[in-house]
Design brief:
alpha+beta; 4-stranded antiparallel sheet; 7 helices; 30% helix
Length: 217
């Protein structure tokens, strides 16, 4: 009996220790393969600089500057390079454990993001288990009429067709468990077309973390 009690206590200790991990601890323990631009020493330096209230700037593997902008108990934000950013958020699960969510955003020339999920031991999880990402259609407001002779409908079709690539920027709110998806394709198609597109689009969609998933508000 004593052996079983000891095993249970050790298991509980490990579980509690895992759940207590902060963004800082997880960031420092992150495998190099998750963020190849930063070495373990780079990551440790960034968090040490932040703790010391210093500018958290390091030279990454491409010999460019990486700057840590924010670090809270459950959130980290980096300017990874002049053309990319990186965000990490620790999200609670109903079973008392946590999941790590990472957003990589590249600016080429406008912002476009990808999102990934990991366990607290940095094992990848399926993105679709935690969010259904929006497509361009989610950002367009269809007119009431679908009559091909209707000028408004024709303008909508023209606007939709001009956005033939899906570019979406994702951002965490560092203070809560919400996420914003911003449609950046209109920036890509150019200012000349933007005025024709704007009446038919929703610029952003908000998501709330609920029941172990990001759900549209």
């Amino acid at each position: 009996m004593k052996k079983y009690i000891t095993a249970f206590v050790l298991s509980l200790f490990v579980c509690l220790s895992t759940n207590a991990q902060t963004a800082k601890e997880l960031f420092r323990a992150m495998p190099d393969s998750i963020l190849p631009l930063l070495s373990a020493n780079n990551r440790a330096d960034c968090t040490d600089f932040m703790d010391s209230k210093m500018k958290a700037e390091v030279v990454n593997a491409f010999k460019e500057k990486t700057v840590m902008n924010d670090m809270t108990a459950d959130y980290i934000s980096l300017n990874l390079s002049e053309s990319s950013t990186w965000q990490m958020k620790i999200l609670p699960l109903k079973d008392g454990t946590k999941i790590i969510c990472i957003i990589n955003t590249a600016f080429g020339p406008v912002a476009d993001s990808r999102i990934n999920f990991y366990t607290t031991t940095w094992e990848p999880r399926n993105t679709v288990d935690f969010i259904i990402l929006p497509t361009a259609d989610d950002f367009f407001k269809k007119p009431a009429s679908s009559d091909k002779n209707d000028s408004t409908y024709n303008a909508y079709i023209k606007a939709r067709q001009s956005c033939d690539i899906d570019l979406i920027k994702l951002d965490f709110n560092k203070s809560d468990f919400t996420l914003t998806a911003t449609y950046t394709t209109p920036e890509f198609v150019g200012k000349a077309n933007t005025k024709d597109i704007t009446p038919y689009i929703i610029s952003s969609i908000s998501y709330n973390w609920s029941n172990d998933r990001f759900e549209k508000k």
